[in-house]
Amino acid sequence: MDAVYRNQRHIYDLTRKYYLLGRDHMIGELGVPAGGTVLEVACGTGRNLALAARHYTHARLYGFDISAQMLKSAQTTIARKGLQDRVTLAEGDATDFDPETLFGVKSFDRVFISYSVSMIPVWKEAIAHAMEVVAPGGELHVVDFGQQDGLPGWFGKALHGWLAKFHVAPRADLGAVMAQVAAAHGAQAHFRSLYRDYARYGRIVRSSTASS
């Protein structure tokens, strides 16, 4: 990942804003409680964490990424926004991270994953692991590419072909997997398409009585 992002990280946010649709929608729906904690899995450049910090001014935010190169950009973003006292960053693997080791925090009120499951080979394990660190009464939010079912066939075919060049694979069964993860935790899953299925957005709500 460092090889991929060593140079891309400098233009990542500028280019991705045109086609990573739904990120801001998800952040607006996090509904972080006052004084709550937020974790972004695979935080990339820190763009989403900075936006979430602006939305939820009383929240404490955490983020990690497997790429040390991307974390350099994230650190720059957070410093530029003056958020060092509210945002903590670390290097970690989405499928095998220990939040207590990384941040000294056991669980979080909100956990989100933005356009990363389409890049993680063992993405199902990443979602399942993310759910493990959601606090009782907390939520896991995921947004990523859809299947473009409501768009012209040529558009979806062209998009998928282009994404494949960057080892990005939209997950057609994202909703089903999130439903399975929710059921395993006695939680409720909510899933819908955005922008004529350009993107898909899922939310798992954990019971407030669930064991942490």
Automatic annotation (TrEMBL):
BP-aspect Gene Ontology terms: methylation
Pfam families: Methyltransf_25
Domain Methyltransferase: 38-138
Molecular function via GO: methyltransferase activity
Xref: SUPFAM superfamilies: S-adenosyl-L-methionine-dependent methyltransferases (SSF53335)
InterPro entries cross-referenced by the UniProt entry: Methyltransf_25 (IPR041698), SAM-dependent_MTases_sf (IPR029063)
Record keywords, A-Z: Methyltransferase, Transferase
Source taxon at top rank: Bacteria
Keyword Transcription regulation: no
Protein name: Methyltransferase domain-containing protein
Organism: Roseitalea porphyridii
